[in-house]
Amino acid sequence: MAVLKLYREKLNHNYHHLNKVFQQHQIDWGVVTKLLCGNELLLREVLALGVREIHDSRVTNLKAIKKIAPDVQTVYIKPSPKKSIPDIVQYADVSFETELDTIRMLSEEAVRQGKTHKIIIMIEMGDLREGVMGDDLVSFYEHIFELPGIAVIGLGANFNCLHGVMPTKDKLVQLSLYKQLIEATFSKKIPWVSGGTSVTIPLLFSHQLPRGINHFRIGEALFFGLNLFTGETFEGMHDDVFELETEIIELTEKPMVPHGMLAENPSGDSYEIDANLYGKTSHRAILDVGLLDINPKFLIPKEGQLSVIGASSDMLVVELGENNENYRLGDTLCFKLRYMGALSLLNSRYINKEVVV
Q: Boundaries of each Alanine racemase N-terminal domain copy (predicted)?
């Protein structure tokens, strides 16, 4: 069975590298664990780093975190669904909110539970996912700042999540000014401007981050060390905290061109034959992982001569060329991963998960 491995020392290195940077700039931050899909083994590895704030988009995952570490601050990072509000108040110390009616229901539930539920008001900054429109922010805040059981601890924004709109210094200055506007209008202090995610880190390194941005939520940079502006790995960080290990379940020299009448495959893909490949052969391996577990475009082969041909629901086909590495049946092939690929694997109950010390 294919195995997804998490390398503890590499994760530890990336975490402390980021933590040092944030401390130097007096920035608070939390770790986004939605990638881990509530896997208790891996959550324990993250919590063992000394993390004091965890962000997730699933209430069940926050419940698992509170079971392991009750004192860690948990943050629900999308607007709360009505039916989930009792659980969100119970298991999330903070939530991201954009709707007045939802916040009123959170207020009522927080009073019932005898709690103060903290919220971060998300503001629309151009990517057109969640967020209050900037022109509506003052009236929006006016309706919520006196609600019982509710404390506004920050304003926030997301970038690059839907339409690919990237953060810029100007956009983050604008976000910081919204905080100043609210504080001046209502004589209320808002501790955080949460404008930082993994995509914002390059602005911090290039000294373009406005001083007002004092809170980050980090997932992808922690687990993959990825600079989302350049597609390269941040200097001093690991890009292979996760690794997929697969087993070769067939290895045969085969023609490079399919033969027979071609139609769409079950995935809806159609193939065009390259006439230059007629008569040529290559060693092809079938691996014990498929589309049910991961989209092949999110796999990064570690072996230079390997190329991914395609996948069916349960099998992945790769080409080994002349097989100069002399792979055999039962050998393993390893892949680095892109974020969405790791997310799929972690959500698959057919893939074993292991921690490598």
A: 9-225
What sign results for the dihedral spanned by CA atoms 87, 77, 43, 110?
Answer: negative
- Give which of 286, 261, 283 is closest to 271, Cα–Cα: 261
Residue 267: predicted pLDDT: 82
| Domain topology for 242-356 | Elongation Factor Tu (Ef-tu); domain 3 (2.40.30)
- Residues sharing a CB contact under 8 Å with residue 41, sequence separation 6 or more, in sequence order: 353, 355
3-state secondary structure of 333: strand
Q: Report the pLDDT value the prediction gives residue 264, as an integer from 0 to 100.
A: 86
Count of CB atoms situated within 10 Å of the CB of 58: 16
Residue type for position 282: S
Q: What is the pTM of this model?
A: 0.95
Q: What is the pLDDT of residues 66-119, one digit of tens each?
A: 999 999 999 999 999 999 999 999 999 999 999 999 999 999 999 999 999 999
Helices 100-113 and 137-144: crossing angle in degrees, nearest 10, is: 20
Q: pLDDT tens digits, residue range 301-320?
A: 997 789 999 999 999 999 99
Q: Which residues contact 57 (CB under 8 A, 6 or more apart)?
A: 34, 76, 77, 78
Dihedral sign, Cα of residue 19, residue 22, residue 23, residue 29: negative
How confident is the model over 34-44, as a mean pLDDT? 98
Element housing 12 (H / E):
helix 8-24
Q: Which of 111, 108, 129, 130 is nearest to 120 (CA)?
A: 130
Q: Which residues contact 17 (CB under 8 A, 6 or more apart)?
A: 236, 237
Residue among 145, 120, 308, 286 nearest 216 (CA) = 120
For residues 138 and 145, the answer to whether their CB atoms sit within 8 Å is: no
Domain 8-224 listed as CATH 3.40.50.20: no
Domain ranges of the chain: 8-224, 242-356
**pLDDT single digits (tens) 148-173:** 999 999 999 999 999 999 999 999 99
Distance between CA 32 and CA 220 in Å, rounded? 8
Sequence-distant (≥ 6) Cβ neighbours of residue 112 within 8 angstroms: none
